[in-house]
Every structure is written in structure tokens, then in C-alpha cells.
Amino acid sequence: SIPIAKQLASIKALGKGSDLEKAFATLALVYNNSADPEGKLSKAEAKSLLHTQFWGFIQGQENKPKYQEIISALDEESEDKIDFEDFMILLVSLTLMSDLLQEIKNVKTTK
Q: Where in this chain does the record put each EF-hand domain (predicted)?
């Protein structure tokens, strides 16, 4: 498997890309590296990807009802697959409820 940084470097359009563009490209590459040939993840794979690649955002969220709802949806009908759009909705939902987001908002942006 080719490292994400090397995959990013191979995308010429990102050579002068913004931090946000590179962040989204990284997200797409991480997803695509785990997805099947049809571009989808099983719910079990999606859950695993969240726990391995998004732990900082979901850590400490286990007792929140919305988190439990999201994770239980991944446990139900695990043979169903989700596409990139659904995965993005999961990421945004988990990000919005995370304690890490508040910490990020508190980071000083000026000297």
C-alpha cells in the first residue's frame, strides 16, 4: 500500500492546493484506499475506519446519545454498504459533537 503522503504528492492539481483542499484530498484517499471496487464500504469497515483514522474526534463520545445512534446504525444490517457521501455525513456528524472540535475552536490563530 502506497503511503497517503505519496499519493497526495502524485496529484498535480494539489501542488499549490490550499490546506483545506489537501485535507479533503487526504480524506478521499483514506476512504478510497479502504473502499471496494464499487467505491463503497461495508458498515463494519466504516466503523473500523472511524476507530482507526478518526479516534481523536470520537474519543470520549461513547455516552452521547447521538454517537450511540450513529454507531448502532453501523452495527445494524452490517451487510449494507455506504458510499463516500454517507461516510462524509458520518464524519461531519461526529466532528460537530466532538470535544476535540471545541479544543480546535479555542486554538489561537494570531500571535
A: 62-97
pLDDT digits (tens, 9 = 90+) for 71-101: 888 887 667 899 999 999 999 999 998 989 8
| 30 and 44 together in one domain | no
Q: What beta strand segments (E) does the chain contain? A: 41-42, 81-82
Q: Cell numbers of 38, please?
A: 464499487
Domain of 98? 38-110
CB-CB contact of 80 with 41 (8 Å): no
One domain, residues 21 and 45: no
Q: Total domain count for the chain?
A: 2
The whole-angstrom separation of Cα 39 and Cα 34 is 9
Do 79 and 30 fall within a single domain? Answer: no
31-58 confidence digits (pLDDT tens): 999 999 999 999 889 999 999 999 999 9
